[in-house]
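Handoff note, outgoing to incoming analyst
You'll be picking up this chain. Sequence as last confirmed:
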Amino acid sequence: MAKKIHFWTEKEKAHLTKLVKSSKNASEAAREFVKTSKRPFFGVQVMAGSIRKQLGIVKVKASKTSNLNTSTQRGVELPGGFVFNFTPKKAEMYDNHVRLYF
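Most recent structure output, in case you need it:
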């Protein structure tokens, strides 16, 4: 038997938005909403969290970008016996590692 998908009606969204605006966090709003509806708590909590993001109540974290270091740095000392006898086509130097493309 396949699961039945329940989409959010405008009435439900409006009610949840009202609860989100009046509560401290998404889980508190979800607890109140679940009392009057037949929806699972975790699904309501996720929806309440997305409403909080849309309303600007929660700051959305910026995605992490790579720290490409374009400044010239001193060479790295290689361990004894390591020979570097090939030329990379491209080299990217980061704060904590180097990527060599051949």
